[in-house]
Amino acid sequence: MDDGLHRPRHRGRHRVRGAAGVTDGNEVAKAQKAAPRGAAPTVSWILDRSLPAGVLYEDQQCLVFRDAATQAPVHFLVIPEKPIPCISQVEEEDRKLLGHLLLVAKKTAKAGGLGDGYRFVINDGELGLQSVYHLHIHILGGRQLQWPPG
User: Fold this and answer.
1) Where are the domains of the chain?
2) pLDDT digit string (tens) for 74-130?
3) Torsion-angle region of 117 (φ positive above 0: left; ψ -120 to 50: alpha; else: beta)
4) What is the Cα–Cα distance from 63 to 55, expressed in whole angstroms?
5) Which of 93, 96, 89 has its CA nearest to residue 135?
6) Using an 8 Å Cβ cutoff, are 9 and 55 in contact?
7) Any catalytic annotation for residue 100?
């Protein structure tokens, strides 16, 4: 069955609730220490294939790979090739790219078996828990997600 996806050519002081309902400050601490200076080295290393990342999909505009710090049974990241630090810094010229990222995220969720539902998350800034300053969309699913998320 053709799912429309192109397979890869290459292989602190606050407390937050974790994936298993356990609280820890790890993600908050990472966000507080992160600096919005552009792409984190790990993201650029994934984009240039210096760091293996379990790539699930790629095209000229974006890359999808499994998140190493999973927060749900299924957890993928969609990142643009273009270095955009965060969602609050997108420009009007990025309109088509953002639409493309969401469509790829939807197709990846379907291909990943998330037909019963999933969540997209985009963190922005320290209070939004952004710890990597390269725009990325989290695709989370595979279990009943809770609300509110934060």
Assistant:
1) 24-141
2) 999 999 999 999 999 999 999 999 999 999 999 999 999 999 999 999 999 988 988
3) left
4) 7
5) 89
6) no
7) no
DSSP conformation letters of 114-129: -TT-EEEE---TTTTT
Tokens representing 91 are: 């420009």
Contact 114, 139 (CB under 8 A): yes
Q: What is the pTM of this model?
A: 0.75
CB 108 within 8 A of CB 56: yes
**What is the CATH topology of the domain spanning 24-141?**
HIT family, subunit A (3.30.428)
The sign of the dihedral angle between the CA atoms of 65, 36, 16, 121 is: negative
Give the active site residue among 75, 134, 136, 138: 136
SS3 state at 87: helix
H/E segment holding residue 76? strand 74-80
